[in-house]
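The freezer alarm interrupted the setup, so I double-checked each line after restarting. Inputs confirmed:
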Amino acid sequence: MDEVTVPVLVDSVKTGEDFPFTRCVYYTMEVQEPGEGDVWTAGFDSLGVPYVLLGSAAVLRAPRADHDLFDSPQLIEETFERIEQSEQFLVESNDLWVPTSRLSAAGAPDSPARGQVFRLGWELFMRAYQHRHGTIAQDRFVELCQALESQLRPSRVEAEAFADWSQRQIDTAREQYPKAPGLALAWQEDDLADSSEEGES
Amino acid sequence: MSELKVTLIDVGWGDSILVESTPSHGDKRYALIDSNDEENERTSFTFLKRFFDREPGNVVSRPRLFDFVILSHSHSDHGKGLKRIMSRYGTRRFWYPKSTSLGSQADLVRYANRSSKVEHHEAINRGKNLPDLGDAELSVLWPPYNVIDHHNENNNSIVLTIAVGNVSFMLTGDAEGPVWDRIADRIPPDTAFFKVPHHGSSDATFHQGDTPWIDHCPAGAHLAISCHVKPHNHPHGSVIQEFADQGYPYYRTDRHYHVTCVTDGTDVRVLYYH
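Predicted 3D structure, all chains:
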């Protein structure tokens, strides 16, 4: 994988004058506490330094070293499951903001929309991260986004894969419902009748 | 004597709400609504860890410490970090609203599907009969069971009442004006604490020239805002002005830090930390 990019999912689109930015989510792999026998090695030049992870967060940019894209729901599921097989590892989500106008320019006519996926080049991702954490000013970040516009591109195949994967989670929840029969909620008959008269909003 | 305590945790921006219910008989119960942790700033998690470490009775030894954890709606500033919290403390129930676009929060459902730390999970809506939390009675005001907003996740927010004795608390997610138009008349007349919806945005308080939830919120109720000043400038100045004009006492996490409201079913106190 020559070019380092990070997939981000559109979470919430803002177009107002106050803050015309879109919140995007990226996934991280986080370590909670040391695991049994988990000794890693960090490479500093030619020196390898062994260590045990106490706590760490790493941005997920690809499902495997030999596969660049999260391009199928199975691959997303396998990746997340594989990571969380180690009890001390969790996949988590985090967010940053990208100017809505930049996403519009890079994407389809309906961009940005919730659920779409974009790939951010590493420098653009770092700048967005810095902006999110207050280490560069908003005006400066907007300038950088313009200068780095080639590092932003839509990833439709990943958008479809994440949408399918998301639906599979709901389908699985339905299949296994009730996970604990004694804790499933009962219905109130009168409220059910009342609710049935309302349409979708 | 029963006690209900609700704390808006100051998470910088976004929501995270700890609910404690001490029944007249039996063990204290805990619930959590939302979190907004980041990979390197785990504000909710840190607050909860310190809180539970100080609780008497070694409560952290309970296999599932929370009676329930709620994701109010599928936005990242309400769901980030919930997995880690459920993984550490466990929950008997995990509740969330229906959505046609769970987005990244689908991973919470995946976790609930597979983890023994979440005993049961399901989407909730009005019409489902929620169990009591200690002596506190819970009721869902929104969403109805067959209503999903396909365009604005805020309007899929779970709106909840928690009541002890003659006192009700309202927890509102990010529900905006169109929701309040439909449910404002269901706000309990004994509401003493009202979490201002959507961090005090103008869209959640003003709707078509009206102030639907304010029009039904009892005078003197304590209003509390989980602020989102950066980057959205919530609460909006016009909303704060409206509260001041109408004489409501209000509290905001950007100025008062953690905001706690306590009741024994009769009296109500608000505590804050700055």
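Quick read of the result. The longest strand of chain B covers residues 3-8.
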